[in-house]
Amino acid sequence: MRLDKLSIINFKNIESEDIALSAGINCFVGDNGAGKTNILDAVHYLSFAKSMHTLTDAQCVRHGEEGFIVDGRFTRDDDRPEQVVCSYTRRGGKTLKRNGKEYDRLSEHVGSVPIVVVSPADTALISDSAEERRRYLNRFISQIDRTYLAALMRYAAALQERNKLLKTSPTEDILLIYDAMLTASAEIIYAKRTEVIEQMKPLVAEFYAALSEQREQTNLEYRSELQTASLADLLLASRQKDFVNEHTSSGIHRDDVLFTIGEHPLRKFGSQGQQKSFLVALKLAEYTLLARHAGAKPILLLDDLFDKLDMRRVAQLLKLTAGESFGQILITDCNKHRLQHTLSEAGVEYRLLNITNGKAQL
Ligand SMILES: Nc1ncnc2c1ncn2[C@@H]1O[C@H](COP(=O)(O)OP(=O)(O)OP(=O)(O)O)[C@@H](O)[C@H]1O
Ligand SMILES: [Mg+2]
Questions:
Q1: Contact assessment for residue 67 and residue 88, using Cβ atoms and an 8 Å cutoff
Q2: pLDDT tens-digit readout, 142-195
Q3: What is the CA(354)–ligand 2 centre distance, in A?
Q4: Which of 94, 228, 238, 242 is deepest in the core (most CB within 10 A)?
């Protein structure tokens, strides 16, 4: 899928812009605070109907304005055109339209405009708690499997009810019903997480090796209590503890993914550039799996291309993504000359736009 034209009105510091994009590499360059990331965030709205940062819709409206509109004209891989418009007003809320037709529920749009974002904020995936990694997996797997998303929603609802129940004095029978509901959805989630992480492993290894020019080896391992016993048994075993603590201590809401470099935890032993390289490899693996599933190439957004990466790794990344397996790419960076230099070194074609105060110029 590719974005041919992006029209933005009153989105953050962008007042009104029509941006034409090429099918290959598109670069947005400009000073800090110019509005480069804001353009990528507008594209993110067309895919997920929300900001890629933890911003509310209202916070994305240009200061002093009533609402914003982001309008994207796409061409699908089978050449069909497609239009997605996301608009928000402080009074009326948010609407999302695909080819002129409004969605009843925003979740119906999930997966329709596949994108993969690499952003400096991704370091939270490594440094923060397991919850970040679960959220990442959930968002990614939901795009390729609707039964996963449905199971997640059922699991979350049952978990909330069970936790509420633990604060009262529930009978065994009632608890067993909730345990059974949790177990049923947990099995679906566990199986899918296992499958996806297994598929990611060789891809992450391959991309990391290319980025680092074989300097280091990395790995990822799924960690779940369900690898040791069934959730039904785990819940039964921790029942007394759950009563005391008034919450459910076992389940897929405690899963984690362990990232390693040379068999040591990446979080503790990886340098900043190694951690960033791992994140890029992870996202490229995600890209590959999304593309495989959709039978179409997602749009790749690389925010702050040089963030923590040395020139060689950036050049390797550009060579990788300019290859046949990838499609349209949107890149931002604050150093135009460094970017142009590295792009020509890598020998790839590109289109460049200068961003100043929320305005884009060729
Ligand atoms: N709701 C808003 N209304 C008006 N301006 C906003 C709003 N939200 C953010 N901004 C402005 O957007 C600018 C930040 O834009 P952005 O994050 O896209 O910068 P950038 O070009 O990516 O910079 P950097 O190189 O530092 O990453 C800031 O000047 C900020 O004040
Ligand atoms: Mg930025």
A1: yes
A2: 989 989 999 999 999 999 999 999 999 778 899 999 999 999 999 999 999 999
A3: 13
A4: 242
- The residue whose CB lies within 8 Å of the most ligand 1 atoms, and thus the one to mutate among 12, 51, 63, is 12
Q: Three-state SS for 166?
A: helix
Q: Any residues with Cβ below 6 Å from ligand 1, and which?
A: 12-13, 30, 32-38, 59-63, 304, 334
Cα gap 179→250, rounded to integer Å: 11
CA nearest ligand 1 atom 29, residue: 33
Q: What does pTM read for this prediction?
A: 0.94
Residues in the chain: 362
Using the structure block, give the residue that is written with the tokens 């041919």.
4
Each residue of 206-244: pLDDT tens digit? 999 999 999 999 999 999 999 999 999 999 999 999 989
Most informative mutation of 14, 38, 61, 68 for ligand 1 (most atoms within 8 A of CB): 38
Burial class of residue 296, CB neighbours in 10 A (0-12, 13-18, 19+) = middle
Give residue 225 CA to ligand 2 midpoint distance, Å: 39
Residue 125 φ then ψ, to 5°: -60, -30
For 239-285, the DSSP string reads HHHHHHHTS---SGGG-EEEEEETTEEHHHH--HHHHHHHHHHHHHH
